[in-house]
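Our consortium's second objective concerns turning raw sequence data into structural hypotheses that experimental partners can test. To show how far this objective has progressed, the report includes one record in full. It was chosen at random from the queue rather than selected for favorable results. The single chain below, 221 residues long, was entered without modification.
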Amino acid sequence: MPPTQPTQPERLSKRLDKDLAAQAARKLMSGQQPTAEERAALRRHERHQEELRRWQYYESIPQKHWRQMSGRQTKVLAEQADRYGLPFGGRTVNLPKLVRALHEFLAANARKLAGEDGMMDAGASSPALEQYRKERARLARLDRLAREGTLVSRENVRDGLGRIAHLLRAAGEALQRQYGKEAGELLDEALDDAQREIDRLFGQKRRRKRKQKPARKESKP
């Protein structure tokens, strides 16, 4: 989806990434090796910039490119735009607006296009047809919940928790500098436990392994 106004935690996370990415870029230009955290921040910053550029391109696709992708002449595309109310015209095409209009048209005419009126409204029934109707009702309910914003994908939840963990780890580094190594290690251990619980609930993703900390030796009396 196109970039939206970031929340306060997201702004803080992006500011931290931007600072770390700048440090990584300066080190690379001077022939030094950035830290793993700086390299990761630089990759995230580059991906974010690429995402912003991509959405800019989406909003101004040359009409020539759209003709080539569709395999239709300008006259045919203009007739379709007028007939179906599609935002196609001018020298460029706003792809997000066009895609939304296409899907709204498909949603409004789904039953006609699929030829399902007779099947859904028929008086006759069978176990297979009844199961089909139930599945259609479930899909319609999920689509409605997603549109209302009450249904959130597991992937979005997991990504949100990951961003929170990133902020907390940054706070842990500050704690370690101010209160000593043990304070930072306590927070790291708690975050590792939280990460394992996230993996258990939402499925494990491949991620960079954290360096194992050496066990602390008990002092002898």
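The partners drew two points from this record. Residues 206-213, 215-221 have pLDDT under 50 and may be disordered. Strands lie at 61-62, 92-93. Both points have been shared with the crystallography group to help prioritize constructs.
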